[in-house]
Design brief:
5 helices; 8 strands; single chain; alpha+beta
Length: 171
């Protein structure tokens, strides 16, 4: 599975961050309840590079900044072809199932909250997406990333088959 992961260096990238979800979490101790915050953040350059992270802290701003730092450590490269994805892809993480389908120009991003943040951060402008099963934002983000990691462009397919790119399209 490690060959499918395309790590990216963070140097000289202009990354934009999107807050997917923020939760107030409670830890019950003998002294009472202790409140803290958990933030899921997606960062991307809107040109094929995206990452996600989780930050936890006693304050909201600290949790978000920790999530951004974590997301910058988990960047991947996604093939984007003419503003959409190269082919249909389904993936699952935990109870969340996602389905991504390429769309024609002008369609826009037809996706729900957590998936929309990931797809817009990648730079995909036209895609049809469906979320089935759990609507847990953690699992939806991770399932979307799993689907994006399995996407292959024509050059990748040609290299795997050890043929030219023309041969991939013409059989």
């Amino acid at each position: 599975m490690t060959e499918g992961i395309r790590k990216v260096k963070t140097s000289d990238l202009e990354l934009k961050d999107r807050l997917v979800s923020i939760q107030r979490v409670t830890k019950v101790t003998k002294g009472g309840r202790t409140f803290s915050f958990s933030a899921i953040v997606v960062v991307g350059n809107e040109d094929g590079i995206v990452g996600h992270g989780l930050g936890k802290a006693k304050e909201v701003t600290t949790a978000i900044s920790k999530g951004i730092e974590d997301a910058k450590k988990n960047l991947i490269k996604v093939p984007v072809y003419k503003g959409t994805i190269p082919h249909e892809q389904a993936a699952k993480f935990g109870g969340a199932r996602v389905f991504l389908k390429p769309a024609s120009e002008g369609t826009g991003v037809k996706a729900g909250g957590a998936m929309r943040a990931v797809l817009e951060s990648v730079g995909i402008n036209n895609v049809l997406a469906k979320s089935k099963g759990s609507s847990n934002p953690h699992n939806l983000v991770k399932a979307t990333f799993a689907a994006l990691l399995e996407l292959r462009d024509a050059r990748g397919v040609a290299a795997a088959r050890q043929v030219s790119v023309d041969k991939v399209f013409n059989g």
